[in-house]
Prior knowledge:
The protein is mostly helical. The protein contains 8 helices and no strands.
Amino acid sequence: xxxxxxxxxxxxxxxxxxxxxxxxxxxxxxxxxxxxxxxxxxxxxxxxxxxxxxxxxxxxxxxxxxxxxxxxxxxxxxxxxxxxxxxxxxxxxxxxxxxxxxxxxxxxxxxxxxxxxxxxxxxxxxxxxxxxxxxxxxxxxxxxxxxxxxxxxxxxxxxxxxxxxxxxxxxxxxxxxxxxxxxxxxxxxxxxxxxxxxxxxxxxxxxxxxx
Length: 211
């Protein structure tokens, strides 16, 4: 069969051996999201969910496992946990951010699967989880809109302040220029007066000398 097959991490996840999972992943040679082609692309997290090992689920997710990884039929770990009635695994997956409303290739969500297999406790939990997720999405959407509005207002404020700064700079430059012109006019007037005074003194000296 083409593609990777079950690794030691898959086996440890299926056995619920969290310590072994840690040891293997710390070696750095295993892909925590490796799909097992022999078992329809199941990842170690799928196996942990199937067997209901909540602690192993947490360890795998801490090491980067995709909580919404899908098999070749579109089943997530939550689909498997719902099918078998592993409520602790479902709760762990949901707490760790799994999307419990993902549809498989037939359009079924984990709650649909739990309903088909008569897993009443899982059905009730998933109803609540779906409701909480919808509320959270609405809250996130509202917070995003509010954040974007604050950012828009801040940007508008910065733009107005920059315009005001530039206006004040231009006004200051204009006043300085006008002041310079006025000073030049006054300076020219004084020089002219001094010239006339010197000419008068010179004329008086000549007249006195003529006498």
